[in-house]
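Checklist before submission:
- one chain only
- standard amino acids only
- sequence pasted in full

Submission:
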Amino acid sequence: MSGRPRVVMEADGGARGNPGPAGFGAVVRDAGSGEVLAERSESIGVATNNVAEYRGLIAGLEAAVELGAAEIDVRMDSKLVIEQMSGRWQIKNHGLRPLAAQAAGLVRKFDAVRYQWIPREQNRHADALANAAMDLAAGKPGVAAAGAAAGSDPSARARAQEVAAQGSTTRTSWEPRPASTATRLLLVRHGETERTAERRYSGRGDVPLSERGLAQARATAVRVAGLAPSVAAVVSSPLSRCTATAEIITGVLGGKPVAVEPDLIECDFGAWEGHTFAEVQARWPGEMNAWLASPSVAPPGGESFRAVTTRVRRALAALLAAYPGETVVVVSHVSPLKILLRDALAAGDAFLHRLYLEPAGLSIVDLWPDGGVAVRTVNDTAHLSTV
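Returned file contents:
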């Protein structure tokens, strides 16, 4: 008999409107005791109900895989997802097919999978988590306790409150607070490279700055010096396109040494490295669709945005601990900077594919010890007008 556990997974998802601000929730329980082994909840920006429900299914399956489960009973109040995953209904919506394919790939990791439709009243825990996530996606973190868990049991209601708190530590008040107590991050994307100019995926490949990229870095250095004459540190990704940009900035600031932070390195794009978006879409259409649909999916041989998020948050925590109340220049890449801005704005994952950051663009974020956040500038390129 296998020592791997048998689990029950309940999942739900929805949107405030269809499409609208969306989120999902998933709960994994021990099949024998009913003990909660794992929970997942996430706001996903603007999406449809069906997309959110599939995302909840995927998150629950991923959690069960991480637990090493051998058998899983999947219970959802989405008739569509249950019937499609059971193979009884066709998946006619092309946008759902990559999500169903991703779920099917996870299903193959179990010895046995059983699907069961349940009424919403029996899916209260996942429903509360999903509603709390939807409230966060709609910009209403304080509503979760009252509205998201309506009709749920007390434990689900409490968990909904916890999810809301985890999703945004930012105080909702516009009360002014002294800038001197904030850690100010000047977020700089590295200057242009040949791959940047050709719009090719450039991840771990160490591509140098082009001549135009060097000029952009010099213009950015002058802008940074004008904005922040007193800088505690200049922190950079280890790749040369970033360290070169950072060194030009430190030269203008007075020659401070560049502090290299490995966690600020670009996402590993694996097999897509050096290819254009069109080339990837032509050669890896299924993988591309799955990657665009979920931050948990990695390019072939690469790294998922969820993995990037883990290390970027770790780097941010280290910066806040090392430089409280000071100004720090952070020179990095598109993916890490987008994740920092997504978190600062309490945005959903769709933000990662909608925000464009120019080479040598500048963003400014203030972070206070009490969790307050002020995003002052995003992708400012005024200093590049003559480059």
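Reviewer check: The domain at 179-384 is CATH 3.40.50.1240 (Rossmann fold).
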